[in-house]
Design a protein that fits this description.
single chain; alpha/beta; seven-stranded mixed β-sheet; globular
């Protein structure tokens, strides 16, 4: 299953994010940057020790207290086919009233960092919709609206949304706000 939107600049598919061979993939990380479960654990396992070492360096320098919610940071892709991993920390649903704003910041900051590093393609998972509990339909609207806004003035050629399961992709497709093309 694959669908394209926004004149082919946005592609929605089901698959393994760690197999994406573009410039960057986005890690739905926790603030420690030291690995975890879900997407975070899969990226660290597939990417190898280079990613963990780069995350430890970030923790020892710029993000001593951890990566804040809504912020993003870039590391090597390690053994992944992607050149870079952009780590972002999504909000935990129900803990803060500004969760939608923070989720939008995750997408915006990831795209900004990708642009700063001359990336032409980027692949996202569904940030915060797993154990962080963000409602999937609401997350789809935030993600698609934010990406649409950023792409208006962005040199990025392709934004991929890669979902783990067909039902997750269907929720996204039902609630996204992209123009069909």
């Amino acid at each position: 299953m694959q669908r394209a939107f926004a004149n082919g600049r946005v592609i929605v598919s089901v698959g393994d994010l760690t197999g994406c061979a573009g410039d960057a993939i986005v890690n739905a990380a926790n603030s420690s940057l030291l690995g975890g479960g879900g997407v975070d654990g899969a990226i660290h396992r597939a990417g190898g020790a280079e990613i963990l070492a780069a995350c430890k360096e970030l923790r020892g320098t710029r993000w001593i207290h951890g990566l804040p919610t809504g912020e993003a940071a870039i590391t090597t892709g390690g053994k992944l086919p992607a050149r870079y991993v952009i780590h972002t920390v999504g909000p935990v649903w129900g803990q803060r009233t500004d969760a939608p704003v923070l989720l939008a910041s995750c997408y915006r900051r990831s795209l900004e960092i990708a642009t700063e590093n001359s990336c032409r393609s980027i692949a996202f998972p569904a940030i915060s919709t797993g154990v962080y509990g963000f409602p999937k339909a609401a997350a789809a609207k935030v993600a698609s609206t934010t990406v649409t806004e950023v792409l208006r003035n962005s040199p990025i050629d392709e934004v991929h949304f890669v979902f783990f399961s067909e039902p997750d992709a269907e929720v996204f497709l039902t609630h996204q706000t992209f123009d069909e093309s």
